[in-house]
Design brief:
The protein has seven helices and two strands, in the order βαβαααααα. By secondary structure, it is mostly helical. Helix 3 packs across helix 5 and helix 3 (about 75-95) crosses helix 6 (about 130-145).
Length: about 180
Amino acid sequence: MTSSDSTAEIAGPVGVVGTGLMGLGIAQAVASAGFAVVLCGRNAEASHQGLNEGPRALWLGLAELYPSAAAQPDEGSVRLRLLAAQAREVLRCLEDGVIESADDADAASVFGLGFPKPLGGVARWVEDFGLGELVALCRCLAKAHSGRFASTSWLDGLAASGKGLSDFRKQEISS
C-alpha cells in the first residue's frame, strides 16, 4: 500500500476505508485479506498515522468514488428508512436477549444513540408506528435495499399476536 497514489495494488474487489485513527490498520487488514483498498480521507496521502487534522468536512474525492444518483429519495423516505433500520436492530436485540426490556431500549436509544426524544425511543416509536406496519415496511425495504431489513419469524409472530411490545415492558411494582 502506498500513500503517493492512495491505492493498494491487490487484485479483487475494491474496499473503501477512511484514514481516521484506525483507518490505516483496517486498510492493511482488508488488503492482507486480498481486497484492493482505496484510502479515502483528508490525510490519505499526507500521513501514515491516520490522524484526522484540519476542519471537518466531506472528503472532496468522495463524489468521484460515489457520484450522486440522478434520482434522489425524498427526505421523508430516508427518515423512515433510518428509523426502520434502528427499529429492526432493537427488535433483533430483544429477540436475541441482548436487551432486557423495551424500556431499556428506549432509554439507550435516546441517551446513547441520539434517537429523537420526541419519538420516545426506538421501541416506543415501533409501538406508535405499529408492529404490523413495521413488518410490512421491512419487507418493502428488504426488497428495495437489502436483506438487512428483513423481518424474522419471531417479529412476524409478535406482530400477528397484536400484543405489541407489552411483554417486553418492565412491570411497575405496586406497593
